[in-house]
Design a protein that fits this description.
Blueprint: H1 6-11, H2 14-25, H3 27-57, H4 66-76, H5 81-92, H6 116-131, H7 136-148, H8 150-155, H9 160-163, H10 168-189, H11 194-221, H12 225-230, H13 233-238, E1 248-251, H14 260-268, E2 275-278, E3 283-286, E4 292-297, E5 310-317, E6 326-332, E7 340-346, E8 350-359, E9 367-376, E10 385-386, E11 391-392, E12 395-401, E13 407-412, E14 426-434, E15 442-451, E16 468-475
Parallel strand pairs: 1-2, 1-4
Antiparallel strand pairs: 3-14, 4-6, 5-6, 7-8, 8-9, 9-14, 10-11, 12-13, 12-15, 15-16
Helix pairs in contact: 2-3, 2-7, 6-10, 7-10, 10-11
Length: about 475
């Protein structure tokens, strides 16, 4: 997983950078070892060449590089200040309160990596390394540290806990150098032996850090409701209730492929593909149109339209102060399909079976609701595989049109993401269409369709049409 992070995009530069450093400050020694260095460089280049070539052909495999794009564009246009501000904040994240990583999933927001005492030793270590930069050991350490923090220098302090991961060993080595330097200073100014002072100081420092950080991170931070929500404790708990004998539909706040599927694959392995992901406050999946288990957390309560389709089995409570304090296990029974039939297929992948208005007609300033029923024919044809799960990830658009064909109001939402679709599934989506107060009374055509969010390409009917008409919205 390390190679997916920005740190891996710069760390490989350490070897050529160190060779250039040796050419600058240690030429006699470099002349003695140049042959092994050349062989090592050639072997390394041959080893990574296929990877570099593949990434050149498939830039979409490096989405994290987009984090650099804004900074690179600013530097190219001569704007140095944003880069300098990012760099100062990234450096301040090591020792200055309020400058630490703000991303609560990685850190107590704003807390620097080091407290004032350990931060002092770290700064001393950096100064000592800079003072001795001509010594190869210190030069290598500084190059490693400098390259390791380049991602944070470019993007700022937020999320630098992961972006600095290539530099983590050097960060603590520099702290150790500062500690040893402090012990040496004490030894020169006291009669007590160095070993005694070293052991005492190191032990006291370790105890201080263990007590302070151990409580703050393993007790206070880890039990914070927002942190528990960020790490999807509700979803992880609900995965224990998957029905081993049949399909299970799991609702969550983030049902898309970037969150739930990653967590499920980590927790369940290959079993993760046996369930469907939805946000039950806007959509449901009826697995192959047959009964299933449905798990719904407090944060995404069932839309009222679906209430008659379920039978409660169990209610599970987590912590009352959690952002998402529990979930309910239901038996999901396919309802009688009471909809206006359509029967139009898009891309040989899905068929719009029909639609049913939940709220129509409506008054200006209110929200119309429309339920659409889709049957999955071939999930592989829904769209191209997309990162991070390398599964199709399409979106659903619903447009209410003015008489001239322009859009009056719309919603782009698919609360049952396509990564979990399987052949025969019936997807039911609730479309909420806000009607502005100034909309005049009348009858307005409604159309819908599916598209790839990354490219914008829509799925087509056999005749090439990209939209399906689903009746009219009445505004009274």
């Amino acid at each position: 997983a390390f190679h997916n992070y920005l740190a891996a995009r710069v760390w490989w530069l350490l070897f050529p950078a160190f060779v250039l450093y040796l050419a600058l400050v240690w030429r006699p020694g470099l002349r003695a070892i140049w042959r092994p260095l050349v062989v090592t460089g050639l072997l390394g280049a041959a080893l990574v060449a296929p990877l570099f070539w593949y990434l050149r052909l498939h830039p979409e495999m490096q989405p994290r590089l987009q984090m650099f794009s804004e900074t690179v564009a600013q530097l190219s246009s001569g704007q140095i200040r944003p880069f300098a501000e990012n760099g100062l904040r990234a450096l301040g994240a090591f020792v200055l309160p309020g400058f630490g990583d703000e991303f609560l999933a990685y850190n107590i927001p704003g807390r620097p990596l080091f407290d004032p005492l350990t931060g002092l030793f770290f700064v001393v270590g950096v100064i000592v390394a800079l003072w001795h930069w001509r010594r190869p050991a210190y030069g290598f350490l500084l190059l490693w540290f400098g390259l390791g923090i380049v991602p944070s220098l470019a993007t700022g302090a937020t999320a630098n806990t992961t972006r600095n991961m290539a530099a983590l060993p050097t960060i603590y080595i520099l702290l150790g150098i500062g500690l040893v330097t402090g012990v040496d200073w004490v030894r020169r100014h006291r009669t007590i032996k160095k070993r005694q002072w070293g052991v005492a100081l190191a032990g006291a420092l370790l105890l201080f850090v263990a007590l302070r950080d151990g409580y703050d991170y393993f007790v206070r931070w880890s039990q914070d409701p927002d942190v528990r929500a960020a790490y999807q404790v509700n979803l992880i708990a609900s995965l224990e209730y998957l029905d081993p004998a049949g399909p299970t539909v799991v609702s969550s706040v983030y049902p898309g492929p970037a969150h739930d599927i990653s967590i499920a694959m980590t927790m369940l392995g290959t079993r993760s593909l046996a369930w469907r992901g939805v946000a039950a406050n806007s959509a449901l999946i009826l697995p192959a149109g047959r009964p299933a288990r449905l798990l719904v957390p407090t944060a995404t309560p069932l839309h009222p339209y679906f209430q008659g389709w379920v039978k409660p089995l169990a209610q599970v409570s987590l912590r009352p102060d959690d952002t998402d304090p529990g979930f309910t296990s239901y038996e999901l029974q396919p309802p009688a399909m009471d909809y206006e039939p359509v029967g139009v297929t898009l891309g040989a992948a899905v068929t719009l079976l029909g639609y049913q208005w939940v709220a129509n007609p409506v008054a200006p300033g209110t929200v119309a609701e429309l339920a659409s029923y889709w049957q999955v024919l071939d999930p592989a044809r829904v769209g191209p595989p997309r990162l991070p799960a390398l599964l199709p990830d399409v979106n659903l658009f619903t447009h209410v049109l003015w008489p001239d064909g322009t859009i009056m109001t719309q919603q782009d939402l698919l609360g049952a993401p396509s990564w979990s679709w399987q052949t025969g599934d019936i997807v039911v989506q609730i479309h909420q269409l806000a009607v502005a107060p100034e909309i005049p009374a009348g009858s307005y055509q409604v159309v819908m369709g599916l598209y790839d969010p990354e490219s914008g390409v829509r799925l087509r009917q056999a005749d090439g049409s990209e939209v399906i008409g689903v009746g009219t919205l009445q505004v009274e």
